[in-house]
């Protein structure tokens, strides 16, 4: 049976203030407070510094060490090849730094792009939430408290009242979830903006580092060009360089003899002699320096070239002319970065002036395999590949072993 109107009125008057004040207006003022907090938090900013990469630290340590070695050598006696080698090391290490920094910049640029996309997505979602909140505030403002009271007073009976109370609770819960979601996205947006600023600052720092490295590479290459110009034009410097290069050639001969003694520890199949005149070229370029005795056109000085110089382009691949095992892969004074392959039966090939080595000592290589790339290391004033072929340590003319060109 339905309750009398007076009883319903008492029930409504007892329950309605709690519902309206606690659920509805509390949710609305919570929305307003959430918006205010969002605006304050979004203004925060933090500086971020990235620790240097471990490999960059190691390269810097090696550069400092090479500089100290150069300075110590200069105090004793000026060596043309020693100075060239120091400059080559400096350029080589700097280029390794450039490669690392290029990779870091690429990765960091992608990070900045991704964070920018996330910021845009979050800002769009928060704009939608703000519109929802604004619409709700307008509705509350237009209806006022009387609207909520009217809803409760309009209940037909107690069950209807409970249903209407449940509806108000659902509205309050929905508004509370909007507040929670808005606050969550506000925090996420602030963190994303902070990460974006940090990534951008780190990217700027890496670009400044790269610019410094590029300047040092340019300086070192300029210094090397000046020194090589002296080798070409100044008799005293030319004579000194030739003398040092002959001494370096003797040291290379000693190295090959040592490799001969160690050959028993390397498994090689040999048969290089069977393909004489049919070997592939280590690089497809014009020969600009022939094997054998040469005469300096300006100073009438004899030199003996134990291999050939092949015109090349920096960064291009250098390939093994025959299968074998890597016997040496490192720097050698006057020759720059060098790879020596043991082909068995006391046959060796040597590849010099490399810009990078892609094989390791003891590694088996196949015919035509890339072992490194062309560089400008060693006593060379142009981009060339220096190539030797030896048997029992004796230099052989490579042109009699390589394929004839049409």
Task: Note the main attributes of this structure.
alpha+beta; Glucose Permease (Domain IIA); elongated; 2 domains; 406 residues
Overview of this structure, please?
It is a single chain. The protein has 406 residues and is an alpha+beta fold. The chain has 5 helices and 12 strands. The protein folds into 2 domains: 5-230; 248-400, Distorted Sandwich (Glucose Permease (Domain IIA)), CATH 2.70.70.10. Strands 1, 4, 5, 6, 7, 8, 9, 10, 11 and 12 form a 10-stranded antiparallel β-sheet that branches. A two-stranded antiparallel ribbon has the order 2-3. Helix 1 packs antiparallel against helix 3, helix 2 runs antiparallel to helix 3 (80-153) and helix 4 (158-233) crosses helix 5. It is elongated, with a radius of gyration of 39 Å.
Strand content: 15-25%
Q: Helix and strand succession?
A: HHHHHEEEEEEEEEEEE
Radius of gyration: 39 Å
Structural class: alpha+beta
**Percentage of residues assigned to helices:** 55-70%
Gross morphology: elongated
Number of strands: 12
How would a crystallographer describe the biggest sheet? 10 strands, antiparallel
Global mean pLDDT: 76
Count of discrete structural domains: 2
Low-confidence stretches: 1-50
Figure out the total of helices: 5
* Distance from first to last alpha carbon: 115 Å
Q: Brief overview, please?
A:
The protein has 406 residues and is an alpha+beta fold.
Helix-strand layout with pairing:
Blueprint: H1 5-41, H2 54-76, H3 80-153, H4 158-233, H5 235-261, E1 287-289, E2 292-295, E3 302-305, E4 308-311, E5 317-319, E6 324-332, E7 336-344, E8 347-357, E9 364-365, E10 370-374, E11 384-391, E12 394-396
